[in-house]
Task: structure prediction
Amino acid sequence: MIFTVAIDGPAAAGKGTIGRRVAAAFGFAHLDTGLLYRAVGAKGGDPVAAARGLGAADLARDDLRTLEAGQAASRVAAIPGVRAALVDFQRRFARAEGGAVLDGRDIGTVICPEAEVKLYVTASAEVRARRRWQELGGEAGAKPLAAVLAEVRDRDARDMGRADAPLRAAADALVIDTSDLTIEAAVAVALAAVRAKFTP
Ligand code: CDP
Result:
C-alpha cells in the first residue's frame, strides 16, 4: 500500500505535531523534512556538498532546533543544488510501502505532487511567533517576543520569495488555519481529511 500525506506550511504553524499525530494514528512513517535542511545548514562548509553527503549522524545533532539553525536552514534551502540533492531521498520515503507523512515547504508542490492527501497548515505570524517564543521559554527564555516575531517574518519572506520551490499551498491542498484552533481541533481536521481518502 502506497499512500502519502503531504503537509506544508510556514514555521511554527503546527505541521510537526499534526504530522506526528497523523502518522501514529494510521501507522505511517513520518519524515520532518525541515530537519534535512537544518542539518545541511548546521554542517557548514559547502552546502551542496553537505547535502550530498548527509548522513544519520548529521540528523542526530542536538542543536538543530534552535532559531539560528532555522535561519541557516532557510538560507541553504534557497540553493537549487541543495534542494536537488535531497529530492530522491524524500521521494523514495514518500512512496515507500506502508504509507508516509512528510512535512515541509514543498512536499505537495514539488516532492510529491501525486500525494493522496495534501494539507497546508498555517497561522498568523503573531500566533506562530508566540508559540515559538513559548517553546523557547517565554519570559524566562533568552529571546524577547519581538525578536522571535522578526525571525519568523524574515524566514517566511525568504521561504515564500525564493525562486526554487517557494513555500505555497498546492492548488488541491486543504488549508488548515490554526490561529484560533487548539492542537486537538487542528489534529481532528487533519485526521478527518486522511480518513476520507484512506481505506486500510
Ligand atoms: O520547524 P519550522 O517550521 O520552524 O522549520 P523547519 O520545518 O524545520 O524548516 C526549516 C527551514 O528549512 C525552513 O524555513 C525552509 O527554508 C527549509 N525547508 C525547505 O525549504 N523545504 C522543506 N521541505 C522543509 C524545510
